[in-house]
Amino acid sequence: MKLALAFLCSIGIAGANYGAPQGGQGYYPIGGVYYESDSDSREEIRKLSELDGPGIFKAQIKYYHNKHGDYALITCKPNPLPNHFTWIMTNAGKDLQGFPVNIPGAIPLAGGINITYMAKYGRDGKWKGEDYLYSEKRKFRRVGCLFSTDQSVDIEREK
To answer: Which of 7, 93, 104 shows the shortest CA–CA distance to 56?
Structure first.
């Protein structure tokens, strides 16, 4: 009995601190007033562009933002040839000897059967991530996908 009375009193005290809904709409506003300019408090990011070259096709890119920064999730459709790699390529490298396609300045960011790659946006307006072959940090603005047509070309990382 005492517990029920204490509960009812606490509800009455808590309810006394809130006034009636403002404006007569029958609900309380949540989070205060929203202004369109509030959402633009951070700078606009430069979206990734398409990489051009022989055999290169468009990657699917989704953009995300959290308290740690802006990110791009890059994916490519699987290679129609069974057990052949698909590569996510970028324009941030040097010419590669022995890589399947000679695209000047192109280097793979990721390779595999079903691949996804996460890049982070830098303050300098470029996207950043590690490359597949050398595990070096790269800055880039263009990405694309490439199907491998020869299994012998599906190379391993250099150590």
So the answer is: 104
SS3 53: coil
Total residues found in the chain within this entry: 159
Residue 151: its pLDDT value, please? 63
Rounded Cα–Cα distance for residues 139 and 122 (Å):
9
Give the residue among 112, 63, 64 at the shortest CA–CA distance from 88.
112
In order of 8, 37, 43, 44, the CA distances from 40 in angstroms are: 45, 5, 7, 8
Instruction: Give pLDDT tens digits for 5-44.
Output: 554 555 554 445 445 545 555 544 444 443 343 444 456 8
119: CB partners within 8 A, 6+ apart: 48, 71, 72, 74, 109, 127, 128, 129, 140, 143
List residues bridging with 86 in a β-sheet: 112, 147
8 A C-beta contact, residue 153 and residue 100:
yes
Pairing type for strands 69-75 and 107-112 reads unpaired
Tokens of 154: 């599906």
Q: Rounded distance, CA 15 to CA 17, Å?
A: 5
Least Cα distance to 96 among 128, 58, 134 occurs for 134
